[in-house]
Design goal:
Two copies of one chain form a homodimer.
Chain A lengths: L9 H17 L5 E2 L1 H8 L3 H9 L5 E2 L3 E3 H11 L6 E6 L3 H7 L3 H4 L2 E8 L8 E2 L3 E5 L3 H8 L3 E4 L3 H13 L4 E4 L12 E4 L2 H9 L4
Parallel strand pairs in A: 4-5, 4-8, 5-7, 8-9, 9-10
Antiparallel strand pairs in A: 1-3, 2-3, 6-7
Helix pairs in contact in A: 1-4, 2-3
Chain lengths: ~210, ~210
């Protein structure tokens, strides 16, 4: 899909997952929605919604709005979500444990198929009756055997850069990192940051 | 500060915390930086950096760039970070525990001063030798006594909306939520979402 829409600004792509989230909730109330309802739900203008979606094709009709199932399927296709994704969890501390216990990933087609850590005390531990923490020394073999392309990086900031570099050597193409440092990686590697301090500093701009 | 810069687009405000993060790392290498170096570091163009910062004033000089300490101080002022912020943690499951054990909040002036949960088995438990989990029934008293304006919401999605509504009744103005639902709250309440699935769905757009 990514070649088809190469010119779509990333800021629009970034909004599409939020559309999916909104659509899944609006679907509980009915089969159709419109740009005004979607906009109200998400805090964007109706014009913004129409403009965003028009980048990808004609999904709705003037007057009748959007069929929610159809629009969901289209956005799923655009975001490459009409398939399952395998992930490796690198770092099994508190955040790692929270991730392994969170059912929202697999409910959305993202499956943690392996978890690794460098701490000998954690290796061999079974989490959630499902995943056995393995040694980080096996990371190359695990990634290659399972053909994993996405890593969740929950290691300390001090080792995040070197760990990320190692992961991409073995074939990882996308990294969701919880380490509070900015990673410097080749431009074809997609990195998303989960950084609550940055979100808090955004909030405080608006507080007194 | 928020009245002074009322017309600044939120998308620019959202980038300022990332500038702070970059500046703190660049400061380890020297006293000054420039829009090109900052841009390379953050993945924005130099022109973007100059345009963003010019919204707030004159922070750099043609040819000599930015003094890092001065620019950091200015951005801290803009984001209301030249003070400490008190937070309450609402929900003490896995993510809540990870938050209580994370030192990055207080290192950046954000202090979790209280944690509450509805689970009787958790109430009274001491985390990290510092915080005792209290009953959610005390939440009004805690927020008012400590004059807390920011909440971190780590409750199940099914109760996130009602919990958020309760919190703002008691004076909470900003919410960082980990619950995977979109909250519907008054427009003067600032909400930021930590949602790894949304970040993953953004990554997969670019993968094959």
């Amino acid at each position: 899909m990514n070649t088809k829409f190469q010119t779509i600004p990333d800021i629009i792509v970034a909004r599409l997952p939020r559309y999916l989230r909104a659509l899944s909730i609006l679907r509980q109330k009915g089969e159709t929605t419109n740009s005004k309802e979607l906009g109200t739900f998400l805090g964007y203008s109706a014009a913004q919604i129409r403009k965003d979606l028009s980048q990808f094709g004609e999904f709705g009709k003037q007057g009748t709005g959007y069929n929610i199932d159809f629009l969901t399927e289209q956005i799923n296709n655009i975001l490459n979500l009409a398939r399952e994704w395998k992930m490796i969890l690198v770092g099994c501390g508190n955040i790692g444990h929270a991730i392994l216990n969170y059912s929202g990933f697999s409910a959305n087609g993202f499956h943690v198929v392996a978890a690794v850590d460098s701490d000998e005390n954690l290796i061999g531990k079974v989490i959630n009756d499902q995943i056995t923490i393995q040694s980080i020394n096996n990371v190359e073999q695990i990634i290659r055997n399972h053909q994993i392309s996405i890593a969740m990086l929950t290691v300390p900031a001090s080792v995040a850069q070197e760990t990320a570099e190692e992961l991409i050597k073995y074939g990882i193409k996308g990294i969701l990192t919880y380490a509070p440092i900015i990673l410097s990686l080749p431009s074809d590697i997609r990195v998303e940051y989960i950084d609550p301090v940055i979100s808090l500093q955004h909030i405080t701009y608006y507080l007194n």
